[in-house]
Amino acid sequence: MSMLKTHQKFSYPVLVADIGGTNARFALVDSPSSPTRMCGKTATADHSGISDAIRSVLHSGSGTKPRTAIIAVAGPVSGDVIPLTNAAWVIEPLKMISGLQLEQVIVLNDFEAQALALPGYQGSDIEQIGQGTARPDSTKFVLGPGTGLGAAAMIRAASTWVPVPGEGGHVELGPVTAEDYEIWPHIEFYGGRLGAEQLLSGTGLPRLAHGVANWMQRDSQLDTPASVTMAAEDNDPVAVKTLEVFARSLGRVAGDFALTVFARGGVYLTGGVTPRIDPFLTDGNFRKAFEAKAPHNALMAKIPTFIVRHPDPALEGLASFARAPEEFAVELAGRQWSGAAAALSG
Asked: Which residues are annotated as a binding site for ATP?
């Protein structure tokens, strides 16, 4: 018995949208064989809601009228009214259908979209860190230190790609090296614990920097993620040590997930923090921590790790789904709305 795939046929053109806390990005997929056609990016604060933003972006672009919309949002998707985690917009698919004359709207989790992009990466879309070779048609994992720490698996099972988002960014993060054990008592805990996101994110960087400064017995005014990364560029000792601890801790968490889902297809790093700490991810310490999983060091050495260089990974993931929904087992129950439902609600 084979796994049930998404036997879904979309009406084209399909509008795909990645709605973040600050910006919304849009693209069009004109047909199953068409490349992704970027429409533009706009600040969420500049528009009253998603429908207004879509009208603005499409009006200033090609004027193409989409028939389907597939949207990625941060946070859970439940019910017909979906508030965004970090923006004032509220997504109401039935109102979008009637207001924009769409046939259907689908709303997915943002890291589900990131996972959907993984099988299609090629060439300059990704940059490998260290050794290892991705096995074809094998499970992959994406980890994204941004405002928070997003995580999702792309499981390969029964000749099908199965995206599995979750709250992996909140797994436990404890000390391992002798230096870790010295630093950890100086870090402010959250809710009596240190989850990975409490350190490995933009919001976590200042928490880690304060702990490192206390351990080094130095004054520090590194109160924002940008101040940490900029100070590291100037060789500030607290900032440099902070990013060293950050990178090896990220490598350790990435290795944990690789073992958890046996990610022989590789582990991929996205998120807004990643491109700002390149030297600390590529100097060998991230990879060393990733592989240090005795008794499975030899196995870990074979699993590759990558930095995602694609400028719009979530959009590209949604576009991949839009082009070939039959390749993915995406659960649409409660996350898909049709024009018929909109007519009934009206």
From this structure: 17-22
